[in-house]
């Protein structure tokens, strides 16, 4: 199967080389990898240039955007700029972060999943991060049927059906909800252990803490589902403040009449899907 990779990169000199090396070691290599250098002020561009010179599967795209590292909008804006450089001659498309190490058979197994089941729309493995003892441990997902945005693969038909990726916080949740709305399945593989070199959220600024609640509002979760999801998140993270930040962000978005990411019909489906999941876990 043919696939393309897009890597948004902003000041990734510490990790980018390891990510690009792990792509070169793949048993099933991409047809093309576009590394989008998004306003980097460190040695990121120089590292990209080294790989572009040596390997034709790598391409560089320089863009200028905000230096502020906000989750959602900045990374997806960069991704979409990379997407503009690609044709449609692919079977699946990958959005990859610049701070991960993939197992060598990662995309071979992802391709096998897509080829074996046309109903799979999104596929991926699980993130492992180093603890204080330098051991690689599973970063426990809120939902084991969820693929992290750092290493997400989309079948071409699914990607087109969901209208691409939303440039907002919550993009890597709404994509899966819309995929299911359009009849696609989410596939996760426990054997695909991805090393995540920088723990999630470490580069985000103080403004980002309210965006999760805003995302829940814009995905039309409604008050009760947002309340339950925020309580669960705070419990998982062992951070009481996460609950209050989420709810504050939700009500601020409501007060501002923030635009929704999904239609009313899609929102109805999303709420039914969320309630079904909540009831299943309680019973």
Automatic annotation (TrEMBL):
* SUPFAM superfamilies per the UniProt record, alphabetical: Nucleotide-diphospho-sugar transferases
Ordered alphabetically, the record's keywords are: Transferase
User: Which terms does the record give in the GO molecular function aspect?
Assistant: hexosyltransferase activity
Which named protein is this? Glycosyltransferase family 2 protein
Q: Where is the Glycosyltransferase 2-like domain?
A: 5-145
Q: Which InterPro entries match?
A: Glyco_trans_2-like, Nucleotide-diphossugar_trans
């Amino acid at each position: 199967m043919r696939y393309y990779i897009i890597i948004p990169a902003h000041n990734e000199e510490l990790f980018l080389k390891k990510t690009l090396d792990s792509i070169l070691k793949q048993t099933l290599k991409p047809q093309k990898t576009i590394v989008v250098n998004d306003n980097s002020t460190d040695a990121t561009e120089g590292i990209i240039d080294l790989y572009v010179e040596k390997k034709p599967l790598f391409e560089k795209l320089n863009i200028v955007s905000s230096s502020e590292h906000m989750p959602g909008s900045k990374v997806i804006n960069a991704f979409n700029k990379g997407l503009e450089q690609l044709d449609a001659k692919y079977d699946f498309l990958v959005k990859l972060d610049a701070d991960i190490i993939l197992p060598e058979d990662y995309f071979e197994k992802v391709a096998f999943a897509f080829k074996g089941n046309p109903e799979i729309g999104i596929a991926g493995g699980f993130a492992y991060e180093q603890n204080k003892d330098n051991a690689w441990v599973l970063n426990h997902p809120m939902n084991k049927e969820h693929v992290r945005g750092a290493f997400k693969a989309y079948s071409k038909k699914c990607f087109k059906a969901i209208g691409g990726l939303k440039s907002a916080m919550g993009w890597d949740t709404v994509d899966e909800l819309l995929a299911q709305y359009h009849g696609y399945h989410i596939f996760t593989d426990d054997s695909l252990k991805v090393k995540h070199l920088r723990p999630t959220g470490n580069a985000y600024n103080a403004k980002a803490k309210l965006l999760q609640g805003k995302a829940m509002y814009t995905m039309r979760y409604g008050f009760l589902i947002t309340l339950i999801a925020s309580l669960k998140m705070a419990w998982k993270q062992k951070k009481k403040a996460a609950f209050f930040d989420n709810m504050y962000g939700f009500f601020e978005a409501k007060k501002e009449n923030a635009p929704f990411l999904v239609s009313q019909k899609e929102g109805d489906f999303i709420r039914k899907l969320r309630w079904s999941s909540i009831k299943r876990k309680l019973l």
